[in-house]
Amino acid sequence: MRKSTQAQPARLYNCPMSIHVLYDGWDLAYRPHSPAALHLLAILAHLPADVQASIALPKAVTFALPENASAVIEETSHTAGDKLAWQQNKLAKVFDQVGADLLHLTQAQASLFSNIPTVVSPTGYGNASRSGGFAARLGEALGKGGMSTVQAILWPSDLPKPEDVNNLYELPPIVHPDFEPYQHYHPPEIPELELPETYLLYHGAEDEGTLAQLLQRWSWGAGAIGEYYPLYLVGLGEGAKEYVERMMPDESVRCLAVIAPDSLAKVYQGCSALYHLGPVSPWGGPIRHMLACARPVVGLETPEMDALVGPAAFLVPDGDERAFASAMISIVVNQEIYEPVMKAAYTRSEPWRNNDYGEKLVEVYTDVLGK
What is the pTM for the complete model shown? Predict the structure, then answer.
């Protein structure tokens, strides 16, 4: 992403001590398009200068990391069992190695057996993105058990609060500064990717049930717009890509290759609209990124979506597949719908670009360490 020292001037918030925070970079290494990875980069972009940041990575990454964070690599393979070991043991090893004061996770999975001061910013799509296998299920169960012991759970102040959650802190919503309104009058220039003049995005849950719903809806709309507006699916794992290619071997549906996070911002800016099915990610989700780029969203009517987007999206009732397919078409061919939604997206996301998130975050860190 854009270097944090450029995106955000150094600011001091009268923190009573210099705090050293270790951030979990598993998803940044293995799923750089995931909400967990994108929100981590957003945190670092808004991080005050008086916080020392280290990122624990299971492998080296091929893209530039923010200048205000140092990387510590603890080589770990990308398997469910190795991820379980990472969550339950290896993060604690890196924590001790760097002498950090606090651990900040961007997934709702914490070590069950650790006494490390821990802050969690929940991301992801709940059970919709749950992976299979015994080790993965065990890791999820242990992670949820560990969540009961974390010192702080951070929650965006514009979403309904979860019930019966202890140690909940509300913070202003943020996105990375790279996700900003920018009008590309030609496809964005991305070295590793050749994009058409116009295209649409899906970036969300990748379980087979959600993808099947998406492809069913797209099959009704592709005949009208698919030739001129192909649908790019972002952030899919290999299993999900194989499923899409098997279920819909059509030129109008394409799986986006893994690219650097700063290039992903350009992909968002250049697209015509985002389609979203399934749950909303509290932090780091595609809906926030799309609205921040002043682009329209087509989604389902849910309390979370209503709270997040307001008038800045084209929402249809859940279960009405034909209405969703119609919205897919209308958002790109009807300027009377497209332009008001685009303007509302800009207005809705404006407070996310300049707020006191960094100051509030330091207050949480200080409070946790004072407990």
Answer: 0.89
